[in-house]
Amino acid sequence: MVKCKAAFRPLPEGGVVFAFDSLHSTAIKERPVDLSFLDTVKFDGQGLIPCVAQDAETGEVLMVAYMNKDSLKDTLEKKLASYWSRSRQKYWVKGESSGNTQEVKEVRFDCDRDCVLIKIKQNGGAACHTGMRSCFYFKATDQGLVEDGVRVFNPEEVYGQ
Amino acid sequence: MVKCKAAFRPLPEGGVVFAFDSLHSTAIKERPVDLSFLDTVKFDGQGLIPCVAQDAETGEVLMVAYMNKDSLKDTLEKKLASYWSRSRQKYWVKGESSGNTQEVKEVRFDCDRDCVLIKIKQNGGAACHTGMRSCFYFKATDQGLVEDGVRVFNPEEVYGQ
């Protein structure tokens, strides 16, 4: 049964507007996302799976991080990227400190189902904790590694000293 | 000292053409690639580093595989992708069976230097051993996983039954 919200909003001149909120009906909100395939995803010995985050618009690879089952489930359900921090050993919603959250537009798995690819909108313009747009800002040349990336923010200003 | 190859090739009518091969001079071939930064790359407990292979032209993420130090070194020096197969526990030049080699156009490392991104030309048009163009052909939808990819070859014809 589809339940729709309706509201009468008073106008300054005393009339009313009938607002019909079918897009946010209870029925649509309650439709479950089928995540039964999560049982076929292969996590490694630490219960993690690597995830490639790619800019949905430009195709730029922004970062690679790891997800445990909870963060993968939340990423799929909430369409907001969350990971497992191996260094801090904790669940981590990307952008919880910096505000640079990742809105998830598409989630893909590879042939072996042991790697995830997410296509995202990177809020704030930077995926890297160093303030660079992409984490992959070290380019290999025949003369060694060179820094080659776009700086978006100063990490000292965002995370503090 | 620059050494250049030169050759006289006879023409059908009896003349000669002077061919000057400066692009493939010995001097250029002998110039060493500086790989001293390899000591700063972080390999995991198994001596491996994950590598994202991305189509250099289209930006499509084609596969994620693992490299050990030897395969990373060879990839950088020979500009042809090689990996470490975790399932077969062996060094593996991509395309050695299928012919679908990967010409390396660019190599990047992330901020932590524990992940590699290579931008490649995928010969044969397919990166996946299943014959799909990209390994990431399982797309997550609210109704579950669906196959969504481009099939380039039949693996039974390429690898045998």
What does this structure look like?
2 copies of one chain form a homodimer. Chain A has 3 helices and 10 strands, in the order ββαββαββββββα. In chain A, the strands form 4 sheets. Chain A has a 4-stranded mixed beta sheet with strand order 4-3-8-7, covered by helices on one side. A two-stranded antiparallel ribbon of chain A has the order 1-2. Chain A has a two-stranded antiparallel sheet with strand order 5-6. The first copy, chain A, has helices at 26-30, 69-78, 155-159; strands at residues 5-10, 16-21, 49-55, 61-67, 82-85, 90-93, 102-109, 116-122, 138-141, 144-147. Chain A is globular and about 45 Å long. In chain A, a hairpin with a 5-residue loop joins β3 and β4. With 161 residues, the first copy, chain A, is mainly beta. Residues 1-28 of chain A have low confidence and may be disordered. In chain A, 12% of the residues lie in helices and 35% in strands. Chains A and B meet through β3, β4, β7 and β9 of A and β3, β4, β7 and β9 of B. β7 (102-109) of chain A pairs antiparallel with β9 of chain B, so a sheet runs across the interface.
Number of strands of chain A: 10
Give me the side-by-side strand order of the main sheet of chain A. 4-3-8-7
Secondary-structure element series of chain A? EEHEEHEEEEEEH
Most extensive contact: A-B, 41 and 41 residues
Oligomer kind? homodimer
| β-strand amount of chain A | 35-45%
- Silhouette of chain A: globular
- Helix proportion range of chain A: 10-25%
* Mean pLDDT reading of chain A: 85
Largest sheet of chain A: 4 strands, mixed
Q: Please tally the helical runs of chain A, counting DSSP H or I stretches of 4 or more residues.
A: 3
